[in-house]
Amino acid sequence: MNGDWDNLRVFLVLAEEGSLTAAAKRLKVSHPTVARRIKALEDELGTRLFDRLPDRFQPTEPALELLHDAKEMERASQSIARRSAGLSGSHLGTVRISVDEMMRDFLARHLARLRANHQCIEFEIAVAHTSANLSRREADLLVRSHVPDLASLVRRKLGTVAHAVYGTVELAARTDGSARALKGLPWVGFDDEHLYMPGQTWQAAFLGNQRPAVRTNNGIVLANAIRGGNGVGVLPCFLGDTDPALVRLTPILDEARVDQWLLVHADLRDVPRVRIVMDALAQLFRACRVEIEGEIEAVEPTPVRVAVAASS
Question: Which of 131, 202, 235, 270 gets the most CB atoms within 10 Å of its CB?
Fold first, then answer.
C-alpha cells in the first residue's frame, strides 16, 4: 500500500459521519470525490471497506481494523499542522477565534479596541453554536462558557457574564413590579434542546408549566424576538444593557452568572500571534468588566425591579 493520506482521510471521515452527504460537507468536496477515493482505497487494499446500507455506510471488519491506524495518522497530521504554525516565530498571520452568537455581538462591538495595536494580525471571527475542534484547527482560540475536559486544551478565565430579564418599554409598562405580573407577560426562550443555555434553568423554574410563546435554538434570534416585542426573556447584560430598545426588568440573576473562558490547544499557546491575541482578549475583558458583569446602569427608562422567586 502506498499510504495515500488523502484517501485514508476520506475513509476516516466517512466512517465517522456514516453518509456521503455528511462526509462531503465536512471535507468540503463533492459526493463523487468521496465515492471515488473510497473506491480507490478499496481497490488498493483489495477489500471492501463499507457495506452500503439504505441509510448509512457501515464499516466492514477490515475497515474497523484500519480505523485505529487511520485515527493515529490523523492525530499525527493534526499535531504537525499545529506545531508548524509556530515554526517561523513570526507575529504575522491569521488568528481564528470561535465564539457563540451572543458573544459575537460583544466582540464585534469592541473589535477596533481589540485590534488597535495589532494591525499586523488578521482576525477571523467564526460564529458557531457548538465549539470548534481545536485539535483539527477549526479555530485557534475558543471563547466559551463550557470547558471541554481535554488534557490537550489550556484554559484562561476571561470574566463572569451576568444575565437578567429584558423586554421592551411597552412590555415593561404592563408590569406592576411583582413577580406575578412579570410571569403574566409573554416570554421568549430557547427550545427544549437548549435549556442548558445561561438563564434557561431559572426561566423554566420561574414559569413553571408555562412555556415561552416563542422558542428558538439561536441566541441572536432570541435577542431579536425580545427586541421586536414578542416577549420578555433572559439575555446577557452586555447585550441587553447596550440596546436602547430594551430595559432590564429584573436584578441580575445569580443563578445565571456564567464564567467565560479562553481556550487554546497546548501546541498553539506559545505561537507569537496566538499569544498576542490571547493577551489582547484578556485585556479587553478586564477593560469591559463593568459591562460584562452588568454593573452599568441600564438604559432609560428605569427598569422595573421585581422579586424573582420561582412562583408568586
Answer: 235
